[in-house]
Design brief:
Number of strands: 8
Order of helices and strands: HHHHHEEHHEHEEEEHHEH
Strand order of the largest sheet: 3-1-4-5-6-7
Strand content: 15-25%
Shape: elongated
Structural class: alpha+beta
């Protein structure tokens, strides 16, 4: 192995200092290395990749060969199996709350009551478990905004998986908020009828929405390359669609009950 490559493996910082001290290395490369600390690593790698491809393409044309550009940037993520303590963190419990709205058919109420009873939820923080037995109890539990507002101070990863899946399956809108921990980012999850999947929004400690840095880096890169349409698509995907407010919770007869009406479903 080349001695410099071996040095990169054992001590990259020492390799960096060696290049800066080498009088045969060009001035512009040394200046680029000195600016690395103030630059985003992904942008620096992207620029170097463009430069190498451009230089090789010029050489290929001079040698009457067809240029074959290709990226040398590899993903700098760790794909190794997480340690045991990381797996344990995946089972963290922290506060979560969910507001249910929209119109639900009366025939689905028994199923909803069963799902709520299994979710270990309350009508407030540190209040008794809420397990309504009938429709009137469900309606009396609505908050001042006429939503079914449920809480769990020890929700698994701040979520209500069975309840949320049931609501999505029956096209019932909801808003779920999880406070997060040092290992989990706080988030707000919105579902409305018509969405193919819930909209997830990452939040800071003050409840402000955040856009992931890697998304902004991809947007910036697309803008630098003059790909404004791609940048717009990336931003629209990160921000998500503008959703209507959560409608009030109400119970109605929306599915024809042929058994009680005495009519055949075929006529």
């Amino acid at each position: 192995m080349h001695p410099f490559f071996q040095l990169l493996i054992t001590d990259p910082d020492k390799a960096h200092a060696k290049i800066l001290a080498d009088c045969t290395v060009s001035f512009w490369l040394k200046e680029a290395l000195r600016q690395l600390a103030s630059r985003d690593p992904v942008d620096a790698l992207h620029d170097l990749d463009l430069l190498l491809n451009l230089y090789e393409a010029i050489c290929d044309v001079q040698l009457q060969r067809t240029p074959t550009p290709h990226t040398r940037i590899r993903t700098l993520t760790d794909h190794t199996d997480p340690p045991t303590d990381t797996l344990a963190e995946a089972l963290d419990q922290f506060p979560g709350e969910i507001m249910i709205g929209g119109t639900i058919d009366r025939l689905l109420i028994p199923d909803l009551l069963a799902v709520i009873a299994e979710a270990s939820v309350s009508l407030g923080w540190e209040t008794p478990l809420f397990a309504p037995q009938n429709e009137p109890e469900l309606c009396r539990a609505l908050d001042e905004t006429h939503h079914l507002h449920l809480y769990n101070g020890f929700a698994l990863e701040g979520e209500f998986p069975a309840l949320e899946d049931w609501l999505i399956e029956h096209l019932i809108p909801f808003t779920r908020h999880s406070t997060g921990t040092s290992a989990y980012q706080a988030e707000r999850v919105e579902y409305r009828k018509g969405l193919t999947a819930p909209q997830r929004l990452v939040l800071d400690q003050s409840g402000n929405e955040l856009v992931p840095r890697d998304t902004l880096i991809r947007v910036l890169r697309a803008l630098k390359e003059g790909q404004s349409d791609d940048a717009t698509i990336l931003l629209e995907h990160a921000v998500g669609p503008t959703l209507a407010p959560l409608p009030p919770f109400r119970i109605a007869q929306t599915i024809p009950n042929f058994h009680h009406s005495g009519r055949s479903p075929l006529f």
